[in-house]
Amino acid sequence: MNSILLAMQMIHRSVMEVFFRGGRTDWMKCIASAVAAASFATATMAAEPHPPRVWTSTTGTTVEARLVEIGESTVTLARKDGGAPLKVRLDQLSEADQAYLGEVQKKLDEGPIGATSIAGLDAAPGEIRGPITCKDGKWSYHLYLPKDFHDGRKWPVWFIMSPGGGDHGGILQRYVSGAERLGCILALSVESKNDFADSDLAMQAMADDITARLPVLDGMCFSSGSSGGSRMAYLLAERNKSIAGVLASASGSGVYLKEKDFRDVQLRKSVKVYSLIGTNCFNRSEAVTSHEKLPADCRLRFFPGGHDWADSPYIEEAMARLHGAALMAGKSPEMLPLRRIYSRTMAAWMKEMVAEQPWEAAYWADFLKDFPGDPVAAKQASGMFLELASNPQVELARDAEKDIRRFYLKHYNRNINMEEGKKPDSERATEAKKLAAKYPGLPHAEILERLGDPS
Asked: Pairing with 416, which of 30, 130, 144, 199 sits 20 to 30 Å away (CA)?
């Protein structure tokens, strides 16, 4: 109770300052101070139930104390013997203590559990349901809620379009692993499809219906699709200001309107793009050309295959990268706990990748070491990044990625011409095989070799 009273006194003191200083600026400072104190009070009260425990520093010293507050980079402890409170940097605590704090913070970040069902909506956590009819009665969609879904918090959402429409047939299943790892809602439009004049209306109706009926987190909405569905995903991002990122598969950024005019999408600068394109997709030239117009942090990634959806592992990583970029850009206070959850989740996944895909682990370590989330996870990522910097496979994979980029820029960074890509080119094929031979045992070798083949 003493710590709670201390926190309340801080709030009272901050507000009382208003009566001793004049002017709008001082009012704003006092309000900010009061908000900060309120945050401290919330953390203090949440931490109140924790009993005293023995804490150990990295140098081996110990103290028996109770957790009072977890800050950005420090922790405040109340000594069991009643001595002065201790404020300790997180990186000065043992790994066991840091793990304990991580679990405490995780529970705080997750917040109170709400209802797992939505009134009037045929949906259940962990199940693909549908078709669900929009409230306008005209359009419909399939829906997936993550297993941990409840209405006590707001959730990111992915709006997905298929070139063949929304008989999901395994399409949503490709996104489920990512949805579970990241905690996202998935929705697949039933009516939006190739050669349907009102595809844009169907996908927008889906987005509007879900935003109205489900607890969706503003700034964490994404659009995705394959082929013509990918073009619809680009169009939704152009028209809907809530879209933070586009996961495009099997297409470039050209969009079709009802009158069938083909033009390049007009995205806001804040929208991030991650493209997955088959090595032998007939849209590969368009995808390359499209990405050369986008910011450097938008990623183009080839996978072995033709004009098709990417497999689930590729989609999951793409979802994770766009998810992280949106969290970094978000200004809402609701983003703060999600950033911590994300950095811990991705740090754990990064460790899983090391054994079989150290180059991907290095990619994530580079991203997470500067991510503004959990400081312990950032420290782990920094250590992993340094550790993998001299890994021979990582160095080889980086060289391979550079060769892949040079190759596709040389052969496919041009005006869209699908017929040209369908023709065999012996010089191109020979060059691709020669480059692939430099990277035995790496998946990059297959990508390079297949890039030399016709679409």
From this structure: 199
